[in-house]
Amino acid sequence: MTIPKHRLAHVLKGPFTVFVPTDNAFDDLADGVLNKIIKDKELLKSVLLFHILSWKIYTKELKNEKRIPTLNNNMKVRINLYNKKIVIDGSKVLLADQNATNGVIHVIDKVLVPLPSQNMLQYLASDGEFYKFVHSFVKVKLERKLIDGPFTLFAPTDTAFEQFPPYLLIKLVSDDKKLTDALNYHLVKGTLYTAGLTNGMVLQTVEGRSLNITMNPDKLMVNDCKITTADISVVNGVIHVIDTVLLPPVV
């Protein structure tokens, strides 16, 4: 699938780094998103510029957790290195270091979408589906964890809390230590997009105990919780939305 030409010739004299999504990456966009991008010239320009860096950089120069500015008003993309995988804002590099006359090209498997620069706390508070989760962090004065980082956060929705056994919920909210442990059990140090997860992977949480990842073509699970929305980029890491509250064994 080809995006119509846009008047960016004056921007592309170089040298630059360009992250180029495959045709399949565009096909994988949610219904209506591609048409919306194509029809809105300013949005199209914003998306295209978010794929371009103002200098030439090869993969050997990339560093894990480095956030680098794009030509889209200096909005930043995050670099992550997972073993031999190179990931840009959650998008895996399929073909790297392709020289061009005006820079270097890296082919990626997802379209990079510029989002407002928010930390975890700002994103969750503004979404409207995570009131109970955010309120729990505030109750035990742990909200700083949602501002610091980088972290990977498994975030249960309000619906997940409503489905939580009432007696366990009462037990949690009445004991600040248990609630703190439970919240820290949802946090993992470092930014782990799904491109960096593998089936059977064990993640150590900030609380100290581990989480188990299950991956198959139909679903992605953390312990017994289904990840319903993955790879939400924020300035201090990544959020994965889950359908159940995670609970450490001792609680």
Automatic annotation (TrEMBL):
Entries under PROSITE patterns matching the protein: FAS1 (PS50213)
GO cellular component: extracellular matrix; extracellular space
Domain of life: Eukaryota
Domain FAS1: from-to ranges: 1-112, 117-246
Pfam (any one): Fasciclin
One GO molecular-function entry: cell adhesion molecule binding
One of the GO BP terms on file: cell adhesion
InterPro entries, alphabetized: Adhesion/Biosynth-related, FAS1_dom_sf, FAS1_domain
Protein name (Swiss-Prot/TrEMBL): FAS1 domain-containing protein
Species whose genome carries this gene: Mytilus galloprovincialis (Mediterranean mussel)
Source lineage: Eukaryota, Metazoa, Spiralia, Lophotrochozoa, Mollusca
